[in-house]
TrEMBL record:
It comes from Azoarcus indigens. Substrate binds at S104, T137, D138. This is Glutamin-(Asparagin-)ase. NCBIfam families: asnASE_II. GO terms for biological process: asparagine metabolic process. SUPFAM superfamilies: Glutaminase/Asparaginase (SSF53774). The keyword rRNA-binding does not apply. The active site is at T57, T137.
């Protein structure tokens, strides 16, 4: 038998224990991890989350599984929504309330106030840790922003919808609802304002908008989402910068009615007719959904100056959808006209903020301050 040179023999002797150690390590990797010592501390209780259902596609039903866009919204009751996601019981102690059963394009300011009062009442309860609102997607961004302004609570409040009814293939409502409850149950969602979970993303109720009307990735925030939910766990990457909820000067308890505020769209060939009709109908402010930088046609500017003279506020917003930013006195003499600019808020959000702000002051400088701060 050929003997090994001494150096080779030493290396192989050294190698033997290493080989044994490696093998035993590999084998141990194949064994199931030993059960951790049972934690004797009582298991932390699941968070109590209330789901307020208002209707929309997330409660919709279509004739067949191929009907992802042809369906009836606001059909499925909240009990069935909750039963449709049995995994909810693993992440929270959930109960549901049916506040409305409507498509959200039919929301009125009265619906906003009624929903807001119920949210505020629940948020004051010690046995409620978080609130989820299921909602149509059409005006979801308006409701989320409204609640962000008037609910004096740091508890997680999450608005959620779906782009496809539960009867369709690849329906998005179940996972959206699961994500919403996961966020509402999460202590680190506290103090971040009203949130919106759609398509695994977590958005600020202030920034989010419905940018697409027929795909699950419909909701966008011009400044980006705050985070995302992965397998029932929220991950955060940024925080809201504007005043909201417990940091807001507005409180639903002190609002009996929202101020009447309308929106008129700017476009080529525009005339003052809509603005004048809104003023005649009692609008206290008109949001101008202007072209580009909230620009105002020279066919309309004189009429808006006259309306301001009659006490109607003019608020310049922009009709652009991927991130407007209207600057004071840029292309329009706002100081001279005593007009307000909507900052980065789109027209529908500007309407909500003006309708809330005018419940406290009719002063245009106060109104402009509010648009900078919220
Ligand atoms: N009609 C729409 C609404 O209720 C359906 C939806 O997308 O939720 O907002």
């Amino acid at each position: 038998m050929k003997t090994l040179p001494a150096s080779t023999a030493r290396r192989s002797l050294l190698a033997a224990p290493l080989l044994f150690l490696t093998l035993s390590l590999n084998l141990s990797l194949l064994q199931p991890a030993p059960a951790l010592a049972r934690d004797t501390a009582p298991a932390a209780r699941l968070a109590n989350v209330v789901i307020l259902a208002t209707g929309g596609t997330i409660a919709g039903a279509g004739a067949g599984t191929a009907n992802s866009a042809t369906y009836q919204a606001a059909k499925v009751p909240v009990e069935q929504l909750v039963a449709g996601v049995p995994e909810l019981k693993d992440i929270a102690s959930v109960r549901g309330e049916q506040v409305f059963q409507i498509a959200s394009e039919s929301f009125t300011d009265e619906h906003l106030l009624q929903l807001g009062r119920r949210v505020a009442e629940l948020a004051r309860q010690d046995d409620v840790d978080g609130i989820v609102i299921t909602h149509g997607t059409d005006t979801l961004e308006e409701t989320a922003f409204f609640l962000n302004l008037v609910i004096p609570s740091d508890k997680p409040i999450v608005v959620v919808g779906s782009m496809r009814p539960g009867t369709a293939m690849s329906a998005d409502g179940t996972l959206n609802l699961y994500d919403a409850v996961a966020v509402a149950a999460s202590p680190d969602a506290r103090g971040k304002g009203v949130l919106v979970t759609m398509n695994d993303e977590i958005h600020s109720g202030r920034d989010v908008m419905k940018a697409v009307n027929i795909r699950p990735d419909a909701f966008r925030s011009a400044w980006g989402p705050l985070g995302m939910v992965v397998e029932g766990k929220p991950y955060w990457f940024r925080l809201p910068a504007k005043r909201h909820t417990s940091g807001s000067e507005f409180d639903i308890a002190r609002i009996s009615a929202l101020a009447p505020v309308e929106i008129a769209y700017g476009y080529g060939n525009v005339t003052p007719t809509a603005y004048q009709a809104f003023a005649a109908g009692g609008a206290r402010a008109i949001v101008h959904a202007g072209t580009g930088n909230g620009s105002v046609s020279n066919r309309v500017a004189p009429a808006l100056q006259a309306l301001r003279g009659q006490g109607v506020h003019i608020i310049r917003s922009s009709r652009v959808t991927a991130g407007g930013f209207v600057l004071r006195n840029a292309e329009q003499p706002d100081d001279k006209n005593d007009w307000v600019v909507a900052h980065d808020l789109n027209p529908q959000k500007a309407r909500i903020l003006a309708a809330v702000a005018l419940t406290r002051s009719n002063d245009s400088k106060e109104l402009q301050r509010v648009f900078w701060e919220y």
